[in-house]
Structures are given as C-alpha cells and as structure tokens.
Design a protein that fits this description.
Length: 157
C-alpha cells in the first residue's frame, strides 16, 4: 500500500512494538530515500546495567530498509514483496544514552534494485546501519539482508 511519508511516520510511531520500546520514527524523507529514527533510553527499555536493552536496539533496525524499499519500488511502478531475510548485529559499546539511526538509500542503489528486479525478478543484498549515541559514537552496527521480489516478473521477460 502506498502511504505518504507523514502517514507512515505516524503509523510506525504508534506501532505497539516500537511505541512500547521507545523507538520513535522522526521522519521519512521526501521520496522515501531516507528515514531518521531515535531510540529513547527509558525505564521501559533499560537492562540491568542501565543501558538500552539489546533487543530494543536490534528491533529498531529491523523494518527500516524493507519499509523504504517497499515504498520506493511501489512509486516506480513495481509490485513487490519486501522483507528482511536475515540480520545480525554487533554491539560495540553500551548504549547509555538515547540512540539515533539514519538510513539512506542512494539513487545508485535504487537503480541497482530496479535493474535486478527487471532482469532477475528478485534482489538480495546486505545493508549496514550504525546506531549512534548522543556523542556520535557508534554503539552498534546492524547488517540487514533485504529480499525484494518483483511479483510481475517471469522468466520470459
């Protein structure tokens, strides 16, 4: 379903797994080529050491690339299914402050996806995203393997 950037921002802000883990979508950028996210540190998502629970950090990155690519491809006339095929995360230091995440998809990456969907019917690639604390230090890096299938592709194309 095509949604405006503002509408999807509010849907995701009120999405219970995000809302209760204090994951806040700041905004989807015009054209869906970027999203800004904040993970607020609060009593709802702190672990016994006082840092943000690792599951919250991991959850914050889970849908971002799939949401962006899903909306991007719809706007380019593709009928697709998009999901996170696999993921891994490296925790580099405890998140003792709120975290910020910015995911950007370049024009080159969009062209790569479009060409692959036209030629092969599916696209699979790992994208990395950093989670930064208030001082700008990287607390974690998530590697998300995104799967995109062109529902209109056939081998005869």
């Amino acid at each position: 379903m095509k949604l405006s950037e503002n509408a999807l921002t509010w849907v995701m802000r009120l999405y219970p797994p995000f809302l209760f883990q204090r994951i806040w979508i700041r905004k989807f950028h015009k054209g869906y080529q970027a999203v800004d996210v904040r993970v607020r540190r609060s009593f709802l998502n702190r672990n016994s050491n006082g840092s943000i629970f690792g599951g919250t950090i991991f959850s914050a990155t889970d849908p971002l690339y799939a949401l962006l690519f899903g909306q991007l491809m719809r706007r380019r006339g593709f009928r697709t299914i998009v999901w996170l095929k696999s993921a891994q995360i490296r925790y580099l230091k405890p998140a003792m402050t709120s975290l910020t995440i910015t995911v950007r998809i370049s024009d080159e990456q969009v062209r790569e996806v479009e060409q692959t969907l036209i030629n092969n019917g599916k696209f699979v690639k790992v994208f990395s995203v950093e989670l930064l604390d208030r001082t700008g230090e990287v607390c974690a890096v998530a590697d998300n393997e995104v799967y995109i299938r062109n529902l209109d592709w056939s081998a005869e194309n």
